[in-house]
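Ticket opened by: R.M.
Priority: normal
Category: complex prediction / small molecule

The reporter submitted a protein together with heme C and asked that the result be attached to this ticket for the collaborator who will pick it up next week. Submitted input follows.
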Amino acid sequence: MERHLKWIVPVGTAALGLLFGALIFGGGGSDPHEEVMVAANPLFSGGAGGSLGSTAATGTRHEVHNGESIQAAVTAASAGDVIAVYPGTYHETVYIDKSSITMTGVIREGKYPTLDGEKKLNDAFLYSGDNITIENFKIINYKGNGVMGQAGNNFVIRNNLIHDAGVYGIFPEFGKNGLVEHNVLSGIEDAAIYIGMSDNVDVRHNKVYDSVAGIEIENSRHALVEGNYAYNNTGGILVFITPGLPIKTTYDVIVRNNFVLNNNHENFGAPGSIVSGIPAGTGMLIMAADDVVIENNIIAGNDNAGLIVTDISSVTNVASDPESEPNPDRVRILENVMFSNGNNPIGELKALMLTQLETKGPDIVDTGAGSDKCVMNGARYRSFGLGSYRVCRADEFSTASIVSMTLSEPAEPFVIAADTQEGYERIVGERAYYGVCTGCHAYGVRLIGPPITEIQAIYEDNPEALADYIADPVKVRENFPEMPPQDYLSEETRLAVAKYILTTTNTDKR
Ligand code: HEC
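Result attached by the on-call engineer:
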């Protein structure tokens, strides 16, 4: 008789008590150990990261010890390899431009391998391959990003300690199917965890504090933000659309079981950046995103407001991106605990509350735009602007059946297929634009860097000059930060992205 027993055991080095994979024993009556294999369990796609999370690797293990170069090990590695980095201090930027590499820190007696940028280096890890895992590192004193993903699918970023790492702490940009969990981040000038233009991502059990934005879900779809602790940021958890990016929507997001406490940090975002407009004291912000569920969170002590639901006009002119629908639709506010919010409202909210002869800000404020929104037990909250909300229906009461937004099968790797040299170049350029430049540039809108429209006006039909600039940028604008060099991109890619940028429009193709 054939018999398959399946049960779940932890595999992987950073399991932290969670269950990531399965042992599958097969064979009728024979010694079950004969056919032991470790595999991601397709039946257990939820809660464990689905196709992600198992660190069962097939390739060579490379060891990096204090005084050696992590980059040298990456350069020597091939798909399937594990790079084990031992405790020590490493002053480098690690570029991972190949796929299926596991970067694993070896933690001994509480000592982490530490990447220290000494406030001179921009980035600690930049990856552009698929199936990349980065775990168990301490990352400090960088100027740009702690970990940035540039169009890589199937990523796992977990159990890292990231402090004072620049503009973004963990920033997968334009990736599909990812897990960001058990990281601790602080002192980040923009977003500690920034999920940008990505799909099918779980952000779980992270601690984010002393940053401008704790967790951002931006122009991304199918995201689960669960079990995180966001405190003492300017804004705790933000789900929104940034206008002018090539992906035009944010929808299907569950924000569940989080602690969002005392996010009253003074805003120290780069002047002119979108986050620099977040009022201090904002617990959660839902801006222009659709189908967002807010469930079972504890939101307290946020001095401006606990939860703000608003349209895009709260950061920018609605007309700045006619391709983005500016309103938050179908937002569901389920069971949550909110108290002691709004003790010191500022800016527009303060003015709004004064029109109601109130000096306190609310637990929940909705500025009125959008349709078909609902709230459960709305009378529990001090709220403003929920007049158009209906009571959530029984079939909308819980998201418990959804355990993960990640895919049960890995996302397909990115393949460049084109009939002509020109077509090929266009795809390379587009991928670099989506995966790299849109972290700081948008069409017609200022982000960290100037709008693409302004760049088009300057460089018009001189892509070569643009390509030269990004390899070695010089300071041009007084009121902007410096642009970090993009010289790790190949010359071919730099020219391709320059040509792409000079001809792109604001239209979404996806
Ligand atoms: C980390 C943020 C960041 C990233 C990523 C970034 N830029 Fe920039 N970029 C900036 C900033 C900030 C400026 C303004 C610099 C200044 O005026 O001194 C800028 C300016 C520029 C300019 C204007 C130069 C001029 O002559 O005025 C160009 C062109 C440009 N970036 C292209 C790119 C391209 C192409 C990419 C992607 C490969 C890219 N940038 C990625 C931040 C960034």
